[in-house]
Write a structure and sequence with these properties.
The complex is a heterodimer. By secondary structure, chain A is an all-alpha fold. Chain A has helices at 3-19, 21-43, 75-110, 113-128, 131-141, 146-156, 159-173, 176-183, 188-224, 236-245, 252-280. Chain A is elongated. The two termini of chain A are 18 Å apart. Chain B has 20 helices and 22 strands. Chain B has an eight-stranded mixed sheet with strand order 6-7-8-3-9-10-12-11, sandwiched between helices. Chain B has a six-stranded mixed sheet with strand order 18-19-20-15-21-22, with helices on both faces. Chain B is globular, with a radius of gyration of 26 Å. In chain B, 47% of the residues are buried. Classes of the chains: A mainly alpha, B alpha/beta.
Chain lengths: 284, 600
């Protein structure tokens, strides 16, 4: 793409962005979540792992703005470091799943018919397994580390995107402009790179954002089940789970913030995706 | 006589991008019982909006001024509950695409019966009897046994008959037919028109026939009303109109319709103006050969000096002889050097197979097709849908698998592989029917045309850009167009761009697959003439695939007539037209618009 085209594209994108409230809300919320996850932990001087036994389970007050947990750790510091851990796992996992899904879909949609049939049957098998159970199984099997967690999450959450991409590629590859390109000697790789990526870019971007939301949720869910991020590290999910363990004591200041942040991260991804769909979806 | 429909000063304004745009401006027309009036115009003329306004089915945000009198009642002021009574009962509508207008999951008896019961009440048995009666009336063979069939079990033409039966259910006073034959094969289209013409006579029903196609109007319409860019330009008796069109636009439009035996099509220079950019005064003035200073001052009043009324300051005198009344110039016999040799071509599609089972065998869509094509020659391939003409094109293009031999420049495609095959294949290019589909909507025009150059390699960016500009010039477009996107150009321009892309690959043969059937009439002529000139200049060969006999005969040196996958007749164009041997060819020629001899 030439520079001028780039410029005009970014201009028109900017114009449409300004007019789209959904996208604006999504981007603002995403920025907030990213700030909380990646910047705020390093601004907060409090060590999340310092225990103040005499201040255990205190409601928010002047010294501890978000209160303390049952061990007497600062809840705000825990929340911020937990956010960092959650995002550092969820985002790479989503990226990994995204690339596997897109590649798989392109191979299946553009490759020869036998390859498509093989890949789709394989996909059926993967889809037939309930992903959470598989996740629990493998999480219990491999040594627990953030890196393994990323691999697990990434390797389990690509199939639905792969199927979507494959169907979209199949629908697009018979269009006249694809045939015309083939007539001039275009290879499948060229079609994928030059034509298909552009035409299905909206779908990819939108589903990519949804995937990030799903990944945050999956990371939190695993932590909640005690299989995700390992102590002393915390994630939003594990914080929520810890708080719910002592729900009888009604520690609302420990339950509400991580719950709201998980919800907020999902909402941010979903709004961004919806917004992008609105400004892109109509021009295909 | 009392008019069934009388429209007075009807204007329609739509909201577009936040602004009010007047699509239709001060329309006046009246239709008497039993009269068939054609409302003719190209895309953007406002003809469909006029039809929708009568039914009050305009998109939200539309504003109507003026009166729409149906048997004296002003529909423009009617409330929605009243309109629901009117729709389907007093006014019925037949649409272009009957498959989209019929519910695929219900039998046709149920759908026709429902149309009747909604307004008339009555029992299910009565509705069924009515459906039977109507199916018989519109000429569905063996209607008794077809009552319980579903829409997909009917062919396109039969579906349109079912639609018509449905619209007749409550004996409407007015039938609005919006492009009812567009997309149908000529033979079928003619049958549908004959049916509508018969029904309105038998039922004394007024018909408003909305179309862009003048050739179907001539035979059946009593009166005609021509719209251009939202305003009436000429209206009156159809017979007089076709004998002596008085508005320069009417004359130009008639001149650009391809008819059998035409020597040269006339172009209308320029483009249709967008509704937002309509010129002041006469809207046709910028494209008109007769325009003078007065034309851009005010919209011309109707001139009643002739048999029809024309809104024009310079209406043509009755004695004017339209320029298209030329006789067919004898085509110079040319000797073509051999280029393409097709021997025993067969194409058979495989039906959907089971998981492991063998695919069902379908009858071949093409069998035993052999022909030769010379350098610079144009071979026309005509046939109805399903005749295999598109398969023929795609096989020559190597887009599908086929039996038999296709040899270009002495090289048999089946005997080649890899890079050599790709290079040979490049020499055959294609122009598709739908100009929008043939370009990636996310590329610029420049990128689209540069694609074959990029794929072949060997040019740097600057050289490529220069070549793209030269190609744009060759197809008569401004080089600045390179920066625009396919969504920002008109259909005619888009088709020129598709031709420029084909030329970029330096082909020896271009397969033209219905290249003009998605275009407006005035643009069609321009494109066909461009293709003719390019062929002469570059010794380009064409295989022109079309269901339109007139277009094919205008372009082709030879014509092959295809029926059920086989060539039933192939001959030089003039010989085929004057002495068709096969009965099927005669039928196709009979359905094509003929050149009517004009009196001086």
């Amino acid at each position: 793409m030439s520079e001028a085209a780039m410029l005009s594209l970014s201009k028109s994108l900017g114009g449409r962005l300004a007019g789209n409230a959904t996208l604006k809300a999504g981007l603002v919320l995403s920025g907030l979540i990213l700030f909380l996850g990646f910047v705020a932990p390093f601004l907060d001087p409090v060590n999340p792992y310092t225990i103040h036994p005499s201040h255990a389970l205190q409601a928010p007050n002047g010294q501890f703005l978000f209160g303390t947990d049952e061990l007497g750790r600062d809840a705000l510091a825990l929340l911020l470091s937990g956010g960092f851990t959650t995002l550092i796992v969820a985002l790479p996992a989503a990226l990994l799943a995204f690339f596997i899904g897109v590649t798989y879909g392109f191979l299946s949609g553009l490759g020869p018919a036998w390859l498509d049939r093989l890949l789709m049957r394989l996909l059926d098998v993967v889809l037939a397994l309930p992903s959470l159970i598989v996740l629990l199984f493998f999480a219990a099997l491999v040594p627990q580390s953030n890196f393994n967690l990323i691999l697990l999450l990434g390797l389990i959450s690509w199939p639905s995107l792969a199927r979507l991409v494959r169907n979209e590629v199949l629908a697009q590859r018979g269009r006249d402009f694809m045939l015309a390109a083939r007539q001039s000697g275009a290879s499948s790789a060229y079609l994928a790179r030059v034509h298909l990526l552009r035409v299905i870019a909206p779908i990819l971007v939108v589903n990519g954002t949804f995937m990030i939301g799903d990944s945050v949720l999956a990371t939190s869910a695993l932590s909640f089940l005690g299989l995700g991020v390992q102590p002393p590290q915390e994630s939003w999910g594990s914080l929520l789970q810890g708080a719910l363990d002592i729900a009888a004591l009604d520690p609302w200041w420990l339950i509400l913030p991580p719950g709201l942040l998980i919800f907020g991260a999902l909402l941010a991804a979903s709004l961004t995706g919806q917004g992008l769909l609105q400004i892109w979806g109509n021009k295909r | 006589m009392n008019a069934v429909l009388e429209i007075k000063n009807l204007s329609v304004t739509l909201k577009r991008g936040g602004r009010d745009v007047t699509i239709l401006d001060q329309l006046n027309l009246r239709i008497a019982p039993g009269e068939m009036q054609a409302l003719v115009g190209e895309s953007g003329s406002g003809k469909t909006i006029a039809a929708l306004a009568i039914m009050r089915l305009l998109p939200p945000g539309a504003a109507i001024t003026g009166e729409i009198l149906l048997n004296g009642e002003n529909l423009a002021a009617a409330v929605e509950p009243r309109m629901r009574q009117v729709r389907g009962k007093s006014v019925a509508m037949v649409f272009q695409n009957p498959l989209a207008a019929l519910n695929p999951s219900r039998t046709i008896a149920a759908q026709i019966g429902e149309a009747w019961r909604v307004h008339q009440g009555g029992s299910a048995a009565q509705a069924r009897a009515r459906a039977l009666e109507l199916l018989d009336e519109v000429g569905i063979p063996d209607p008794k046994n077809r009552l319980n069939d579903y829409p997909h079990q009917f062919s396109g033409g039969m579906r349109q008959r079912v639609m018509i039966a449905m619209s007749l259910a409550c004996s409407p006073h007015l039938l609005i037919a919006d492009e009812p034959t567009t997309g149908l094969d000529p033979l079928i289209a003619q049958q549908i028109m004959t049916l509508i013409a018969r029904l309105r006579r038998e039922r004394d029903m007024a018909v408003l026939f909305v179309t862009h196609d003048l050739s179907v109007v001539q035979e059946h319409a009593d009166s005609i009303h021509v719209l251009y860019a939202g305003r009436s330009v000429e209206w009156g008796a159809a017979a007089a109109f076709f004998q002596h069109p008085r508005h320069p636009y009417s004359e130009a439009l008639l001149g650009s319709v391809a008819r059998l035996g035409q020597a040269r099509l006339r172009n209308i220079p320029g483009n249709l103006p967008e509704p937002e950019q309509r010129p002041p005064g006469c809207r046709f003035a910028p494209r008109c050969a007769y325009a003078s200073a007065v034309c851009s001052t005010a919209y011309p009043p109707a001139d009643a000096q002739g048999a029809t009324l024309a809104a024009c300051f310079h209406p043509l005198p009755r004695t004017a002889r339209p320029a298209f009344a030329e006789t067919l110039a004898p085509r110079p016999a040319r000797n073509f050097a051999p280029l393409l040799d097709v021997t025993d071509l067969g194409v058979r599609y495989r039906g959907a197979g089971g998981w492991f089972g063998a695919a069902r065998r379908l009858p071949p869509s093409l069998a035993e097709v052999s022909f030769r094509l010379g350098r610079g020659e144009c071979l026309g391939v005509v046939g109805e849908s399903g005749s295999g003409k598109s398969s023929l094109g795609r096989a020559v293009l190597q887009m599908i698998e086929y039996d038999g031999q296709v040899t270009l420049d002495g090289h048999d495609f089946h005997a080649m592989a890899g890079r050599a095959k790709r290079d040979l294949r490049r020499k055959i290019q294609v122009v598709f029917q739908d100009p929008r589909e043939s370009m990636n909507p996310r590329m610029t025009i420049g990128e689209v045309i540069a694609e074959p150059l990029r794929l072949r390699g060997g040019l740097n960016n600057a050289a490529r850009r220069a070549r793209v500009e030269a190609l744009l010039g060759q197809v008569g477009l401004n080089p600045e167009m390179a920066a625009r996107h396919p969504g920002d150009v008109s259909g005619g321009q888009a088709q020129r761009i598709a031709i420029a892309r084909a030329l970029a690959a330096e082909p020896e043969l271009i397969v033209l697959d219905e290249p003009t059937s998605a275009l407006d009439v005035s643009t069609q002529a321009m494109l066909l003439n461009l293709l003719k000139d390019l062929s002469l200049k570059h010794a380009l060969s064409y295989i022109l695939i079309s269901h339109d006999f007139a277009v094919v005969s205008y372009m082709s040196d030879r014509i092959a007539v295809l029926n059920a996958g086989r060539i039933v007749e192939m001959n030089e164009t003039a010989a085929l037209l004057s002495a068709p041997r096969a009965a099927y060819t005669r039928a196709l020629i009979g359905a094509a618009p003929q050149l009517q001899p004009m009196q001086a």
